[in-house]
Design goal:
257 residues; alpha/beta; Rossmann fold; 2 domains; 11 helices
């Protein structure tokens, strides 16, 4: 089995399925696990894969994601006769299904089932644990200029909903809507979550956005974007992390009345 992965979270999944030695190509953004990917050929970026080189590597399976990769690249790879597995999970439950599907395609169904069941159990526990607790209204920002958030039709939003988070921009028609400072202020979230990726928000940006919106700086929280957006074998830990984030905000909100 020869595998090329063009999505960072799927590269991590391949290793956790015990197939790291079968990877012959990854993107330059595939950084986990660091030791594992170091010696693997980089075949471009997620949006700029070297189709000709990938074809030369003769993989049995190419892993792609609708959000990370472009449809024209999928078509170009398939045109060379390569087998492409394209996924697009938007929820934890869909991620479990994706893991099972990749496990079947890569010949590791038992390992995949273990990860998938862990995802489903963690999701169940998070939902059960949030019953009867106050809902936490949040805005999640992924970009600075312009300010961009996430809608309810995203993996991030689903993960944060499991422990009782309510996305104030859930109903936006675009999956990653631009939001004005005034809109963010009017939404009156309990918390504004500033992600470390794709834009690397830092503490200095808290003051900037707080001034622009008039929202209190203490409701801003820097959160780990990888933990909340990488779907795959990281998802069980991501669910736990989402519960930690929402729990912290809930405790803060209750302490302030």
């Amino acid at each position: 089995m020869r595998i090329v992965s063009l999505c960072p979270s799927l590269t991590e999944l391949v290793f956790d399925l015990g197939l790291g030695d079968f990877l012959v190509g990854v993107t330059k953004f595939c950084v986990h696990p660091a030791e594992g990917v170091r010696g693997i050929e980089k075949v471009g970026g997620t949006k700029t894969p070297g189709v000709a080189r990938i074809a030369e590597l003769q993989p049995d399976l190419v892993l792609l994601n609708v959000e990370e990769n472009r449809v024209e690249d999928v078509e170009a790879l398939r045109a060379t006769g390569l087998s492409c597995h394209v996924s697009f999970p938007k929820t934890a439950v869909e991620t479990a299904g994706m893991v099972r599907s990749i496990g079947e395609a890569a010949g590791r169904p038992e390992e995949a089932e273990r990860i998938a069941r862990d995802i489903e159990e963690k999701a169940r526990q998070a939902r059960e644990g949030s019953k009867g607790l106050p809902t936490v209204r949040y805005a999640y920002l992924i970009w600075r200029k312009p300010l961009m958030s996430v809608s309810g039709d995203t993996f991030i939003s689903d993960l944060l909903s499991l422990p009782g988070g309510q996305n104030v921009f859930a109903d936006r028609p675009k999956r990653y809507p631009v939001v004005e400072a005034e809109e963010l202020a009017a939404a009156a979230p309990h918390a504004v979550l500033l992600s470390t990726e794709p834009f690397p928000f830092q503490q200095k940006h808290v003051d900037e956005i707080s001034r622009a919106t008039g929202l209190a700086p203490e409701i801003f929280h820097i959160v780990d974007g990888e933990m909340l957006s990488w779907h795959g074998s990281r998802t069980p830990a991501g669910i736990d992390y989402a519960a930690e984030v929402i729990g912290r905000v809930r405790a803060q909100t209750e302490s302030h009345g």
